[in-house]
Amino acid sequence: MKDEIGKILQSLELRARKCHRCELSKTRLNVVFGAGPETAEVMVVSEAPGATEDQTGIPFTGAAGKKLDGLLAEAGLDRNSVYICNVLKCRPPGNRDPLPEEIEACRPFLVGQISAIKPKLIVALGRIAAGELLGRRVAMAMEHGTLVDCVYCGVKFKLFITYHPAAGLYGAEAGRRLREDFKKLGAIIEAIRRTTFLQ
Ligand code: URA
Questions:
Q1: What does the pLDDT look like over 17-39, one tens digit per residue?
Q2: Angstrom distance (rounded) from CA 15 to CA 22
Q3: Ligand 1: which atom is nearest the Cα of residue 64?
Q4: For the chain, counts of helices (H) and of strands (E)
Q5: Is the dihedral of CA 145, 146, 152, 156 positive or negative?
Q6: Could you report the per-residue pLDDT of 102-116, keeping only the tens digit for each?
Q7: pLDDT score, position 171
């Protein structure tokens, strides 16, 4: 089973590396497909690669990555135990917001990742990721720190909504809200572990 999921992800990644479905393929240095164990029960979905990720080809390797590692630790999670990816696999120039047509062009890759991994819980970082997974606009001020039932591409999972970790780089108040959300996430994961086999 593990090998099968690995093969599906590998072939999907090869397709992503050759993808020219949108204009971002012209400016990217690397496709940032995703990283983590294919058996992960927790998945982290964010917006799009930044400059460092564009260079390394690995998600969350820049300043926001350091922040994310610390936040995951607040929730009792090790980065190596979760699967991390983005809605877009290529960097939007200047880190601008993804365009709707880019999200649509890239959707088959996220659908493929979620269908293959079938996580029990997804942590959505920011309104773009939460909006894509829920198929609606998300009001972060109201909805951050909440856990909702979600069905995406026919896969059911719990979705935890929180801010993008970069928000924590820009202000003490945003940083405090992020840390509180991740502490709450830790308690949620503990509770799920008590009732299921989430490791
Ligand atoms: N920000 C994101 O949303 N994703 C990354 O991979 C890095 C920074």
A1: 999 999 999 999 999 999 999 99
A2: 14
A3: 8
A4: 9, 5
A5: positive
A6: 999 999 999 999 999
A7: 80
| pTM for the structure as a whole | 0.96
Residue 146 in tokens: 């909440």
For each of the domains in the chain, give its residue range(s) and CATH number, in order of start: 2-193 (3.40.470.10)
Query: Would the CB of 60 count as within 6 Å of ligand 1?
Result: yes
pLDDT at 176 over 80: yes
Helix/strand/coil for 99: coil
54-75 pLDDT, tens digit per residue, is 999 999 999 999 999 999 999 9
Written as six digits, the tokens of 9 are 């992800």
Q: Where residue 172 falls among pLDDT bands split at 50, 70, 90?
A: confident
Both tokens assigned to 101: 């047509």
CA of 154 to the centre of ligand 1 (A): 25
Whether the Cβ atoms of residue 49 and residue 62 lie closer than 8 Å to each other: no
Distance CA 182, CA 84 (A): 16
Cβ pair 45, 123 in contact under 8 A = yes
Tell me which residue of 2, 96, 3, 82 sits closest to 45, measured CA to CA. Answer: 82
Which amino acid is located at 25 in the chain? S
Which atom of ligand 1 is found nearest the CA of 129?
A: 3
Nearest CA to ligand 1 atom 7: 60
